[in-house]
């Protein structure tokens, strides 16, 4: 399908989803979020796609937040719908059966940082700036920032970022555990692709089950999380890829995974 505010490129088992509204620093309006949902359904269904990269078009921004022009005159009822749309879209990223890596290539502010936090992990460019400046607009993070950020970096650090609205640079984000790696901007996409290719070589069902196990257990107690791991792990023995992966190891050859 053709998109107005998004671009999808696929290569070697990797789909690159680019938010494409560079004139407004890739701000997320309703239309873009709806297109993103459609694109996520598309990559979920495509068997040739094993890993997804989410990034922003242009050199300046990943996503500079939800679209302030669209939000300015919202009623509370409209705001609920908008926040729900954001949450549903970010939930689709978080629960996609394939890994999603955020390539943060510039400003990731407000909804922009929140969408990156819904990805499985973040790589950032040296010049990236991340923050949740919503309080400077008289609102506060509404696409999951008050939930995902404290879980990732701890309550106190998250509150400091949320209450001050201050943006941090990529090295600080790395130090806080928001970005896993930082690269010069010209290398960012290639480095993200390298990691994506590495993941794409592994058993797709196993990677997917690992994502499911981490996500499902994250907010639970250790014992409940372990129970999820045991069941999900045992289910991996029902796959072709488990026979192929272990068979290939013992036959000293490269595994040919099918994703089934
Ligand atoms: N919504 C709508 N338009 C935006 C935007 C946004 N979030 N961010 C930037 N733009 C637009 C600007 O209005 C500007 O448009 P015009 O050319 O028509 O004036 C264009 O993008 C370029 O931006 P700037 O001229 O401001 O660029 P800059 O380099 O001077 O500043 C910036 C860059 C610091 C990122 C600045 O644009 C900025 O502060 N943007 C807003 C960031 C923000 O507050 N994000 C949070 C939004 S609220 C939210 O996300 C709610 C939620 O939790 C879901």
Describe the structure.
This protein is α/β, with parallel strands linked by helices and 260 residues long. The protein has 2 domains: 6-200, 2-enoyl-CoA Hydratase, Chain A, domain 1, CATH 3.90.226.10; 204-250, Lyase 2-enoyl-coa Hydratase, Chain  A, domain 2 (Orthogonal Bundle). It has helices at residues 30-45, 68-71, 76-95, 111-118, 145-153, 155-164, 170-176, 188-200, 204-218, 222-235, 240-250, and strands at 6-11, 14-19, 51-56, 61-63, 100-104, 107-109, 121-125, 129-131, 168-169, 181-183. It has a 6-stranded mixed β-sheet with strand order 1-2-3-5-7-10, with helices on both faces. The chain has a 4-stranded mixed β-sheet with strand order 4-6-8-9. Helix 1 packs parallel to helix 3 (76-95) and helix 3 packs parallel to helix 4 (111-118). The longest helix is centred in the N-terminal third of the chain and has 20 residues, at 76-95. It is globular, with a radius of gyration of 19 Å. The model has no long low-confidence stretch (mean pLDDT 98). Bound molecules: acetoacetyl-coenzyme A. Acetoacetyl-coenzyme A binds next to helix 2, strand 6 and helix 4. Residues 24-25, 27, 64-69, 86, 107, 109-111, 114, 133-134, 137, 141-143, 145 line the site of acetoacetyl-coenzyme A (CAA).
């Amino acid at each position: 399908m053709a998109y107005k505010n998004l671009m999808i490129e696929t290569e070697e088992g990797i789909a690159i989803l680019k938010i494409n509204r560079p004139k407004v620093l890739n701000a997320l309006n309703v239309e873009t979020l709806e297109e993103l949902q459609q694109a996520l359904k598309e990559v979920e269904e495509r068997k040739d796609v094993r890993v997804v990269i989410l990034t922003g078009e242009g050199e300046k921004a990943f996503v500079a937040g939800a679209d302030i022009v669209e939000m300015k005159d919202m009623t509370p009822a409209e705001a609920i719908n908008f926040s729900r749309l954001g949450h549903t879209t970010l939930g689709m990223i978080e629960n996609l059966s394939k890994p999603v890596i955020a390539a943060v290539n510039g400003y990731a502010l407000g909804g922009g940082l929140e969408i990156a936090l819904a990805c499985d992990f973040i790589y950032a460019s040296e010049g990236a700036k991340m923050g949740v400046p919503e309080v400077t607009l008289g609102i506060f993070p509404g696409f999951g920032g008050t939930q995902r950020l404290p879980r990732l970096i701890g309550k106190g650090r998250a509150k400091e970022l949320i209450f001050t609205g201050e943006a941090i640079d990529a090295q600080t984000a790395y130090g806080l555990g928001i970005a896993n790696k930082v690269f010069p901007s010209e290398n960012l996409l290639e480095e993200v692709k390298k990691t994506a290719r590495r993941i794409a070589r592994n058993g797709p069902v196993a990677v997917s089950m690992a994502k499911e196990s981490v996500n499902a257990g994250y907010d639970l107690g250790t014992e409940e999380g372990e129970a999820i791991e045991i069941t999900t792990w045992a289910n991996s023995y029902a796959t072709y890829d488990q026979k192929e992966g272990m068979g290939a190891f013992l036959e000293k050859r490269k595994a040919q995974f099918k994703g089934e």
